[in-house]
Design the sequence.
């Protein structure tokens, strides 16, 4: 029985790579420094895994920005617009690479970056390969070969990780009409074979091909591409051992396909999809090793050793110990690096910490599981099993996690609790009478500029330089200024500005029981950007009102409507590490009840309009369409539960960022928010078509200007967009607001742009 790892975090346990890259981009250091930092991280990771006792250690899992971009560079899939970058004196391959990742604006060039999108259902983002008709590929970057050689120099024969040819093509985008990207396989495969030739010449034994698309719905043509690709690879390299890695969901109806491919090792994700094990075992060819993805690569909980051991034992009985490998479920790049760096017991208490494992701890778990399964039970493995059992027991019963009042309340929730008192048509009239807003009412999405100054106040408050009173005074003054200014320019529905918030999820998490945080639990989101998700470990409950004070304060400053501003339950869930001892839907419902209480408290305090942001609803969609309905049912229900404890007159807004609504418009309508604001300006209002076709009944605020650039739009442009909106959505349903994200802008451009926006709305009213 061997152990393997599929990939290790490359950001460095203190985000060394982030800092090195950002210094390089700012021209504070040269390329030698950043290359050296990369090399150090690779060596550290390899040696750590070797010392931990992992049998098969990955290479080429390192990346300066993104592994998909690495492959585009490897295959020479470099869009023409970057040609000039290499012609500039002094530029290296690394500069070309970063230009593709981030765009290139200097020396008279202004080249946009490649598009970025989410990596399956994770919060990692990759750079989308751009494909053209008859595109030719050639070996351009030899990174994978160089890194294999580098590890060999260290005395470690690693397993290079490649994205498999079919998944690489499916990750890309066709940039012109007249072909299908999968047709490029025949042009692409020769480059894979060339890479493999070089690796084999250097003495490679195993190569990992990641084919996550095997866990998604595939067309017949795509299935055929899989067969063709792996047949050719096998024919060219009959003795090379291929590890075929699948993850994030079950193989489902692709089980037979996956099992038929001529590979040496098949890796499956048994954390996301434990139910697939028996089906896989029943079709696995007798010469194929099964790699059991038992340790959760995407969450921060300790493995349940007893449970994993029973799985391992079942498999060993069926196919024999020599055909079983133990592994994390997927690459560990989705886990933070090292739990041992969490030394601040005030942030993360020892009781909670004992339930957790970050990447380095997960590596140790893989090895311990193998030792325990092998019954080469050295005393240390036995001791670790005993400790693990105690931690699991403690987690099952800890009063930190299990709160009877939360469980009792959840059981009392009825379907009626998730419905407003009356339908929208009734509410609309009551709200009109109560609120008396003009047509084309104007508002913003919530935040106002989080200037360096505001952020410095928070930092000083956190490190004790400012007292609570001092900090609150500064925030209150900033809020007052924002309210007065909104009044002055004549916005109809005001916001308080969110100056007191560090982040739209963390701010709520910090005020909810059942949440904890880490100091160093960073995970790569894209490039040098890392996130530190809150950790939901237990039953969720509100200690006390969370936003009431600031919202009421802001309301007290103005006779205009102050919009209460909350983050919705699905978004809070989606952007956190979630407990794995109960269904996500259950945790989401608990959060929904806490938000519901907040909504009710705001209403009681006289707040008439409340926005519940749900930008993350769409990204929670399961990978397989068959599972969408179940997810959408509980997600929409959680939102409605949070929004329904109030009178008809109180107006609920929700907000979603730029996303495609085509296939979920019915569910968006089911959310039944009185007003939905969406990001649309960059699509020239095209996103509204699906609302129009569906005859979406409630009110809509399409963003009328793009906040992503400091450029100030004028009223004519906005009027133009509003006219486009009016052409498809009846004007009595329309609101006027910018796209979301004003917190990232400066005050100067924000003010100018909103003045124009208010004028645009006035002109629309008079037409
Ligand atoms: N209310 C939030 C803001 O305006 C919404 C952020 C978001 O949509 N991601 O910043
Ligand atoms: Zn948004």
Sequence:
């Amino acid at each position: 029985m061997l152990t393997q790892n599929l990939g290790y975090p490359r950001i460095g346990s203190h985000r060394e790579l982030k800092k090195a890259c950002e210094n390089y981009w700012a021209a504070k250091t040269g390329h030698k420094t950043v290359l050296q930092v990369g090399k150090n991280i690779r060596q550290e990771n390899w040696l750590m895994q070797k010392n931990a006792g992992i049998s098969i250690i990955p290479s080429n899992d390192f990346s300066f920005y993104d592994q998909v971009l690495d492959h585009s560079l490897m295959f020479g899939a470099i869009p023409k617009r970057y040609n000039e970058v290499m012609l500039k004196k002094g530029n290296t391959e690394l500069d070309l690479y970063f230009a593709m990742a981030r765009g290139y604006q200097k020396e008279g060039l202004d080249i946009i970056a490649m598009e970025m999108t989410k990596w399956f259902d994770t919060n990692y983002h990759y750079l989308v390969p751009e494909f053209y008709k008859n595109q030719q590929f050639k070996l351009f970057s030899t990174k994978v070969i160089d890194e294999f050689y580098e590890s060999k120099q260290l005395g470690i024969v690693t397993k290079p990780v490649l994205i498999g040819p079919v998944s690489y093509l499916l990750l890309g985008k066709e940039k012109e009409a007249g072909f299908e990207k999968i047709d490029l396989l025949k042009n692409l495969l020769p480059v894979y074979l060339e890479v493999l030739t070089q690796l084999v010449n250097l003495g490679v034994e195993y190569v990992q091909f990641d084919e996550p698309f095997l866990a998604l719905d595939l067309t017949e043509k795509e299935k055929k591409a899989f067969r063709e690709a792996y047949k050719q690879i096998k024919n060219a390299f009959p003795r090379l051992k291929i590890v075929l890695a699948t993850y994030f969901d079950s193989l489902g109806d692709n089980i037979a396909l996956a099992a038929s491919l001529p590979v040496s090792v098949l890796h499956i994700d048994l954390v996301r999809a434990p139910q697939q094990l028996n089906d896989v075992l029943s079709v696995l060819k007798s010469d194929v090793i099964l790699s059991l993805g038992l340790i959760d690569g995407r969450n921060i909980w300790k493995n349940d050793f007893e449970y994993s051991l029973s799985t391992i034992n079942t498999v060993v009985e069926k196919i024999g110990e020599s055909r079983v490998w133990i592994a994390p479920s997927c690459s560990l790049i989705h886990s933070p690096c090292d739990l041992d760096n969490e030394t601040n017991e005030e942030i993360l208490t020892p009781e909670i910490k004992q339930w957790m494992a970050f990447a380095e701890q997960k590596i140790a778990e893989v090895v311990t599981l193998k030792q325990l399964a092998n019954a080469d039970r050295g005393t240390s493995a036995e001791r670790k099993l005993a400790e693990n059992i105690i931690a699991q027991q403690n987690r099952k019963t800890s009063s930190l996690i299990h709160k009877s009042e939360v469980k009792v309340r959840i059981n009392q929730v009825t379907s009626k609790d998730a419905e407003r008192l009356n339908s929208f048509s009734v509410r609309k009239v009551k709200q009109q009478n109560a609120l008396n807003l003009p047509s084309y009412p104007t508002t913003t999405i919530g935040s106002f500029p989080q200037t360096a100054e505001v952020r410095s106040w928070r930092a000083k408050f956190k490190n004790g330089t400012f007292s609570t009173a001092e900090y609150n005074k500064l925030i209150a003054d900033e809020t007052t200024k924002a309210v007065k200014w909104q009044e002055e320019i004549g916005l109809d529905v005001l916001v308080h500005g969110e100056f007191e918030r560090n982040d739209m999820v963390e701010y709520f998490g910090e005020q909810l029981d059942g949440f904890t945080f880490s100091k160093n639990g960073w995970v790569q989101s894209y490039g040098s950007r890392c996130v530190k998700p809150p950790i939901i470990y237990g039953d969720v409950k509100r200690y006390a009102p969370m936003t009431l004070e600031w919202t009421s304060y802001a309301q007290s400053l103005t006779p205009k409507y102050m919009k209460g501003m909350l983050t919705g339950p699905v978004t809070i869930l989606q952007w956190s590490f979630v407990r794995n001892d109960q269904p996500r839907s259950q945790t989401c419902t608990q959060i929904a009840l806490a938000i519901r209480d907040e909504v009710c408290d705001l209403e009681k305090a006289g707040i008439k309009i409340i926005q519940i942001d749900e930008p993350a609803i769409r990204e929670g969609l399961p990978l397989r369409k068959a599972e969408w309905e179940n997810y959408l049912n509980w997600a929409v229900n959680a939102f409605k539960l949070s929004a329904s404890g109030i009178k008809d007159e109180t107006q609920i807004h929700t907000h979603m960022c730029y996303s495609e609504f085509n296939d979920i418009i019915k569910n968006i309508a089911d959310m039944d928010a009185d007003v939905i604001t969406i990001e649309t300006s960059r699509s020239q209002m095209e996103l509204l078509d699906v609302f129009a076709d569906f005859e979406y009944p409630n009110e809509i605020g399409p963003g009328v200007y793009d906040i992503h650039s400091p450029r100030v739009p004028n009223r004519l442009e906005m009027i133009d967009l509003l006219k486009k909106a009016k052409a498809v959505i009846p004007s009595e349903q329309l609101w006027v607001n910018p796209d979301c994200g004003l917190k990232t802008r400066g005050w100067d451009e924000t003010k100018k742009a909103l003045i124009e926006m208010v004028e645009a709305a006035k002109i629309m009213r008079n037409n």
About this structure: Residues 31-52 form the longest helix (22 residues). The chain has a mean pLDDT of 96. The two ends are 76 Å apart (CA to CA).
